[in-house]
From TrEMBL:
Residue stretches making up the Aminoacyl-transfer RNA synthetases class-II family profile domain: 33-492
Pfam families referenced in this protein's UniProt entry, alphabetically: HGTP_anticodon, tRNA-synt_2b, tRNA_edit
The protein, known as: Proline--tRNA ligase
Annotated localization: Cytoplasm
GO cellular component: cytosol
Free-text comment on this protein's domains from its UniProt entry: Consists of three domains: the N-terminal catalytic domain, the editing domain and the C-terminal anticodon-binding domain.
Example GO biological process: prolyl-tRNA aminoacylation
Keywords: Aminoacyl-tRNA synthetase, ATP-binding, Cytoplasm, Ligase, Nucleotide-binding, Protein biosynthesis
Amino acid sequence: MRAQNLLLVTLREPPAEAEILSHQWLVRGGFIRRVASGIYAYMPLMWRVLRKVEAIIREEMDATGALELRLPALQPAELWRRSGRWDTYTDGEGIMFNLTDRQGRQLGLGPTHEEVITSLAAELIRSYRQLPVSLYQLQTKFRDEIRPRFGLMRGREFIMKDAYSFHADEEDLRRYYDCMDQAYRRIFARCGLKVLAVQADSGAIGGAASQEFMAIADAGEDLVLSSRDGRYAANQERAQSLPPPSAPLKVTADECFATPGQATIEAVCAAHHLDPTQTVKVLLHRACFADGPDQPVLTVLRGDQEVNTVKLTNTLGHLLAERGTVLALERLEVDTLQDHGAQLPVGFLGPDLSDDAIQGVPGFVGGFLRIVDSTAADLAGFVCGANVPDRHRRVPGWSALKLSFTRADVRSAQPGDRCCHDPKAVLTATRGIEVGHIFQLGRKYSSALAACFNSESGATEPMWMGCYGIGVSRLAQAAVEQNHDDNGMIWPVSIAPFEVVVTVANGEEQEQCRLAEQLYGELRAAGVDVLLDDRMERAGVKFKDADLLGIPWRVVVGRNAARGHVELKTRSAKDVLDMDASQLLPHLIPQLQRQRRGGWPETGV
Ligand code: ATP
Ligand code: MG
């Protein structure tokens, strides 16, 4: 390819909307163009990258025995109703774009494909002899994200590889899940990404075990907690840890005391020489369900702890399973409550806040569901709000409150906490970009969509399922987020838009042009992905563009062309090798062959 024909439009300044560096570099290098919020055109350079990422994914998926297919993006509502996800995915903050066709039938644009694939499996698979089966596709997904941002990282239209596997029993599902885990590790390593596999929340998809693959980057939206011994890593949404021990507090009598204006844990602790671990705090939420009334929730945590809304949502989903999926969990705003006549002594709430406090608030039926986090439940005596303004209460134990609470783990593990597997190990925090996610779905979708088979013993059973996603477009941008410098991108050879750029320093010098053309031809003949920059631009402009585009190897045909010499350098290292042009291919090709399996030119040439 010649740079002349590349429609190369590079920008000097980062675009205003690009908050993170990878987004800036991709736009400045002309790899992507924004069409609308969260919707991007992949320009030819980006498309080359994406095709290489896809090729790596295909090779590794095929190696697991998975079969490629392509499912429709447009999907009938009926299928999603059968799995019970239509309302969850379209109502409220639902992310599924949906529409009604000319016959008045409802359709959605696929954010994911469990429903479609499971219904096909139900039609096609009859016997255990056809199992296991694994099917995958590389396809556009649509999600009406609440906050599309960071370019391809969180798009509303993006490319995903999704795979679904079907098994006769759980053991076989586990075997294949491990096999996919290994395939994922190879894919990310081959794409040049530094990735950490972490335990994950299964979210709205549901199911048992799930693991995310996090590309380590400060710009990542996820927080990963891990132990240095490498034995534990989890998304904070799901992480567990040992909380710091609480300072003992002896409470002999149940009594109230004055705390004028002391509406925060800090203020109460400072005024009364208490430690936050000797107090409890109360949070109020409204949980909205797919098939039932809203539920007021009162959550109690130890004063030094933070609530984990993902854990709380999961807990509510289990406790009130008959109301279907939790659509939303909102903090109850005191203003709203007071507008409805609720009497709330904010800053002085206690775990035994009366249900009367929320009478008259629309949408609620009945009183609070009271949940107490284990950190608070384990306290013998504690201090809490007295449900009266400017007063707190010393409580000698939970029985003194004469109410029943459901005990659950709803706290957020924090960096610095001790690990459950080894109390001497401590959790540290790292930010990550979720580039992949694998799930053991179990039989949730196969049961809902009647995807059953005849087992060896003759019984009819729902199939065991796994599903496995990779954010292809997100992964490509994550590679830039991990690999750039002040001058632009630094692509790993395996997914670079071009492996080598041959730059003619001075396009008016006949000898330089001739030698560059010759090398360009030889490199192409040797199967190298090479770009020839023969534009009539100043050398400085071409070098700057080459840095910006991040092509891993650069051959400069300059002044020394007259004596048959060229310069070879890598994108990331400063040193330059001056060599006879005839040596270029024998020197370069073996290195490229190695690096195509993953990685960069070693520093230096
Ligand atoms: P997130 O938590 O980031 O919203 P998710 O958990 O909803 O992602 P999955 O349903 O697990 O995403 O989808 C599989 C993969 O698709 C993710 O691991 C991620 O790499 C990618 N992905 C998900 N949403 C987007 C998006 N809006 N833009 C680009 N890639 C995405
Ligand atoms: Mg996920």
